[in-house]
Amino acid sequence: MKNLFKYIFGVLAILVIIIACTKEVGLYTEVEFEISETHVADGFINTPLATSITVTPEELVEGYSYSYFYKINSGEGYYQNESGVTIAEGDKIGLSPLTASMNYIATKIGDHSITFTAEDTFGFQEQVTLSYVITNVPVSWTATGPTGQVLLGSSQDISITLGSETTTTGVTYERNYSFSQGTGTITSSPSGTSEILNEFVSITPGTYTLTYVATELGQTTLAFLLKDSNGQEILQTVSFEVINKLDTTAPVITLIGGDISLAVGDAYTDAGANANDDVDGDITSEIDI
């Protein structure tokens, strides 16, 4: 009888332990939670994009706490908190309160995918994935100047314009003027100061007037390269031909032979023509009949 009593008591004790453990496990699993986010999806390289994540539990239970971390699936960049402190990828950050506001700063253009993981005290996790589309900071960069033909030694105006649409972004710019064909001098107008060529020089938004003087005959191409502090480069060119004399008179074409009299059915051979130009001389070979 005593053994039976001990057996029954042992079974009851085990049941109590099992029930207690079940309740304990139930405590861990019953408080489910969700993670949600809001973010600015489209932006520019090295420009902060507002982002926030929020954990919403089914109920608030004393002793529960939450943290988050992120993993970059594609793209390159990092997050900063509202104080400007960098949040490293993979670092667990406590959520108190249950919302965190931050800025994403992309360091590479293209599509970015980033997964945030929220975790509670007992290791249960929920995830949400954010997508960003990152482009270069747009800017206008134009160069206008002579086209066609210009006289050797003549002065030609060239206008360079860097737009001011990115003034508030913090982006800075450098320019590099060079000759990809031909030679000449480039000076600032109206000061006459020689422009620095073949190296990058700081430039701010505005319109700049340059004076070009050709020193060599032939095809000439001036290259105007702009580079921003994010590494973006934009190239504009101005091309023309430098000559000794402007060709404004049309060639003179003279038919060979006098009046021609033919009977019906007679064969005829065209005697041809001569062509002369006041600049290019004899251009008979260029006649196309």
Report what the structure shows.
With 289 residues, this protein is mostly beta strands. The chain has 4 domains: 1-29; 31-135, Sandwich (Immunoglobulin-like), CATH 2.60.40.2410; 141-243, Uncharacterised protein PF12988, DUF3872 (Immunoglobulin-like), CATH 2.60.40.2410; 252-286, no CATH class. It is 10% helix and 49% strand. It contains 1 helix and 22 strands. The chain has one helix at residues 2-30; strands at 33-39, 42-44, 49-57, 66-74, 77-81, 86-87, 93-95, 99-106, 110-120, 125-135, 141-144, 149-151, 155-162, 173-181, 184-188, 201-203, 206-214, 218-228, 233-243, 252-255, 273-277, 281-282. The strands form 5 sheets. The protein has a 5-stranded antiparallel sheet with strand order 1-3-8-5-6, with no helix packed on it. The chain has a 5-stranded mixed sheet with strand order 2-10-9-4-7, with no helix packed on it. Residues 21-28 have low confidence and may be disordered. InterPro entries: Ig-like_fold (IPR013783), TraQ_sf (IPR038707).
Overall morphology: elongated
Gross CATH architecture of the largest domain: Sandwich
Radius of gyration: 39 Å
Order of helices and strands: HEEEEEEEEEEEEEEEEEEEEEE
Helix content: 10-25%
Strand content: over 45%
The biggest sheet amounts to: 5 strands, antiparallel
Features:
five-stranded antiparallel sheet; 289 residues; five-stranded mixed sheet; 4 domains; single chain; Immunoglobulin-like; elongated; TraQ_sf; mainly beta; Ig-like_fold
